[in-house]
Amino acid sequence: xxxxxxxxLGEAICMKMADMGYDVATTYSPxxxxxxxxxxxxxxxxxxxxxYPCDVASFESAQECIGKVISDMGPVDVLVNNAGIMLLxxxxxxxxxxxxxxxxxxxxxxxxxxxxxxxxxxxxxxxxRVCVGSSxxxxxxxKRPAGCCIGPAPAPIRTTCPPRRCRATAARTCSTRAxxxxxxxxxxxxx
Length: 191
Fold this sequence. Notes:
Layout: E1 2-3, H1 8-19, E2 25-28, H2 35-44, E3 50-53, H3 59-73, E4 78-81, H4 96-121, E5 129-131, E6 146-150, E7 157-161, H5 170-183
Parallel strand pairs: 1-4, 2-3, 4-5
Antiparallel strand pairs: 6-7
Helix pairs in contact: 3-4
């Protein structure tokens, strides 16, 4: 399951996972009017994806979406939290609503998907893996490219994004550390 997989890096992740033998589902914002065209475009390229509406910032929406994915496709083996937004405005014009929406999607959305997929997959799938975010903090002195690694079933997936496409995801880094401690005994790989 790839959140926000209908364009850019998310689409590339969906295609890579399908090429590796995964049955791939993706989510899209409930107001997205391009779903049918995207599914048709992917079919022309030889990919068959399932797409589900989901407001990742809403726990109830994440519950409903993951429940539908499991009902249609079986347990979620891999969750890639790719959905994210960057609503830019001059600092003097930034509103609380703008900041709250970014935090809701970029942080709470990751946690909503992780906790629901993990809860429903614990008993059903010993191979459950999570990619906490499709991007990392770029810039600074870090020499590592942005990206993530998930594995082992059926094979590790590595994705990178150029710095110009990365979103600030400091909170995701903290989530990764928390998830490592919580899911550590199951050999969860988060990089």
